[in-house]
Write a structure and sequence with these properties.
about 290 residues; mainly alpha; 13 helices; about 0% strand; about 80% helix
Length: about 290
Amino acid sequence: MKRPNLYDRLKVLAILTMIMDHFGYIFFPEMIWLRLVGRIAFPIFLFLVGFNLSYKRRWDLLLRAIMVQIPVLILAWYFHFWTYALNILFGIIIGRAVLKWVEGRRSKIEGQKKWLSTLWTLWPLPLRCMLLTIVLLCVHPWLKGFIDYGSFVILFPLMGWLFKVVEGQRSKVEGQKKWLWTLWTLWPLPLRCMLLTYGVLIFACLFGFTQTIFGFSSLQLTILGGFFIILLCIFFVLWQGNHFLPLGKKIDAGVLFISKNALLIYIFHLLVLWVIKIFLMWRQSV
């Protein structure tokens, strides 16, 4: 697959909006618009975690999550933060672990029903995801005290996984018997409605959760809702195909570099911003 593609560009968008969010949080907490734009980053990152379909244990990810958490706890104590919750890297680890379990269950079910067509096993899949979603939403008020974004660190990877699995099932059907492909073409609308309903539900819950934290104005809420609608539409475009999007050699090289080093950029930019913040505070005190 040619790169950079839509997947890579979404990661770059998430990185840029995340940096804006953290910059506003650390230096200009009164500039709520920076925080508003930063709400884009989380759903992109976590959706792509599920869409990537890679859930192997990564000890380097756990190590980096601990490396980030230790200074965050120290800073939280010093600056009197409102929360000591685990950082988003731990959320990614938890999301990947849950998806590995869900993927194992799906493979086991499909292995027991070899005589069923791919289409037949496709319908119950979103229903099982919906049941898991209800459980996660119920435990969210408790879970958000332990980890950033609470149950959403699982819900958005689950959405990305669901989109990717349905896309893979569609590709399998294309290569099978003509009558099976004909059957598939008769029901893309209800299938897309099912995915759309699930996506709208998750984004709506995130919308409400965000408002309880930030207390945005009516205009800001309208803009945030517009952001979420656009993101959901982009996720559907990604579901249709991870298209190659060239913009010139230099720009493409920069996009690929950021996409491949997103984790390091996350750690490095936090370190730089907080070092600058502490230095400025020290200068003011002397």
